[in-house]
Design a protein that fits this description.
This protein is an alpha+beta fold. The protein has two domains: 23-231, no CATH class; 240-307 and 357-578 and 586-593, no CATH class. It is 22% helix and 33% strand. It is built from eleven helices and 30 strands. The strands form five sheets. Strands 13, 14, 16, 17, 18, 19, 20, 25, 26 and 27 form a ten-stranded mixed beta sheet that branches. Helix 7 packs across helix 10. It is elongated, with a radius of gyration of 35 Å. The N and C termini lie far apart (123 Å). The model is unreliable at 1-29, 33-44 and 641-660 (pLDDT under 50).
Length: 660
Amino acid sequence: MQKKTLYKNFISLISFAVLVLFFLVVCAGGALPVPASASSSDNLNFDKTDVLNDLQGITVDGKPFDLADYPAKPSGEIKIIAFAEYCYSQYDNGLGNYALYLYVYNPALEDIAVGSRLNTVELAVAFQGNKNASEYALFSLRYCASSTGQFADRFLKFRVEDTNNSILSAVRQHEAEYGTRPYFVSGVELIVIGESSPHDYPVGRVYTYSGYADGYGDSEKFPLSMSAEAIETLQIDNLHSTYYRYPHTATTSTQIDTVYFSMSPDYVERLGEIFAIRAQYYKYLTSPIVITDEYDFYSYMTDWVGVDIGTEGNADNVYAVYGGGSLSTPFVTSWVYNAASLPWNISVASDAEFLEKMVYLFYTGDGVNILDYVLPSEDLSSYWETYTDKFGEGSGYYGYNNDLFEDGDFSAPSVIDVTSDMLFDLEVDGMVGGRTWGELLWAWLTGKGDVEDVEDVVPIYTVKPEDVADKALISDTLLIADDDVDEFLDFYNTETAAGNNVVLFRFAKSEFSAFSVVIDEHGSAPWNTDSTDVRQEWVYLGFNLISFTFEDDFGVQTVVPVVADPIDVIADVDAGYVPDLGLPLWAKIVLALLALIVLLVILGPIAPYVVKAVIWVVMLPFKAIAAIVKGIKMSVKKKPKSDKSPPKVQPPAVKEVKRK
């Protein structure tokens, strides 16, 4: 029995050794022809095979792999040294074990967050002819194993997560047409623990496989082979972001989010102008951001941040926050937090929006007016980290708590393809220039609310010298934030002096909202309703440039993959479009009275009916009380008298007089 067991173990060992030997076939360019002969019945878990054993016998950049060439170096940079196609089959029913692997050399022993979903690789998913890729996409990487012992963590293995078979479908179609399976790899993004975002490490190679291993196709006629060669990429090391807001309504603005960068003019000279850009990001709408210049309110409400009070509210919280009433319905609110503490004269609209949990709360600081306060993007992202640390991780990007965002890409990123001819407009809808009707009226009278539409905004734009000739006009000319002009101008001057072009990519158009609300302490509303704002904006996390499409004068298009670190595009949270109207308090009161007069004029024809209705509603409780009292008196009159009761003098009957 023991001999039989030993013989069985020996046969298993020999079988495994044969597989490993097949795997160690020498190949060029750091591509790895792993043992495609292993079937699912072999139970070979290639995800967990020894990394150093995998690497023995391969060729990297024309030279056989040698551990001596890959020492531990504190200043060394992460590098991708091998790519592997595993178990590709000529037959559709033989693809059960098909997989793609990447091998990483980590000389500085960086603490890579191996389990992060932010680790990705960029590969081609469509081809133009036999030699060119026409479309790229990002794919998540699943950590498999690391080297151990004296070489611990110096080499790592990742598996490409092609969950929708996008890569497989592309190379299978290419093989049917041209007989080869090309894997265009532009870069690999890995995040190190403690870093705020991943770094994109360039690869810039196409690994081309052909033929099949034994048992996976006609290997005698088409033996498995592989080659590797360099491909062109565009590396961008200076990706920046900015934003611009243009008035849309009294309480909303159209927000333009832009990234800008520099690139060598050589690409345009050889390939033509940039026709299209493919990018990816996680888009989120922040939950309502409450900002106040009332310290007492801020101090009290800090204990209620993150507490779910539902639509009904909680009477233990003394503050109600509400707003959104219109000129015609000043006592009806369409936005409310803590309905339980609303004053008696405020009713809630049937379609009102309820804030069930106050997630954001900021204080402007002593003496800072709410309309002058700008919440910096860095403070907003820092708040996300603090809130997540306190209330737990969620499914948002970086694991941010879901409370922080009202809407967005929680399951998958958004991929966009923007072409240079996708022009867009900035439209104004109604009166702008103030928060109240009085301010809007004054803005209209003074012309400060006279804002015209902007048409035919170009999404991809190369900045020209005349665009930056007048610093005062840069913001409105190039559609970038006033506060970003100095930084942008420095960037432009530095890059153009180095001979580079500066390009603006206006990739998103969204709505930003900012409106005033009343903070009411158990029915004693403050007379100053301009102390607190509710603001919301869209943010774009993990913004990633994937590829550029260039088009020459003859209409020939060339797709070039981009290697660039992803960034978070987060705009500052300001008060929106609120021009300085130069109004003192008395002027605001006068304008409010004028607005009231306008309201009375508008409602004049129906005013008598409105007054009657109001009087009728107000009198209802008194009529009810009178009816109850009358009923009690009647019941007392009809109650039978006791024999022991003292005699009472019956008052004379009162004759009813009817009025004509």
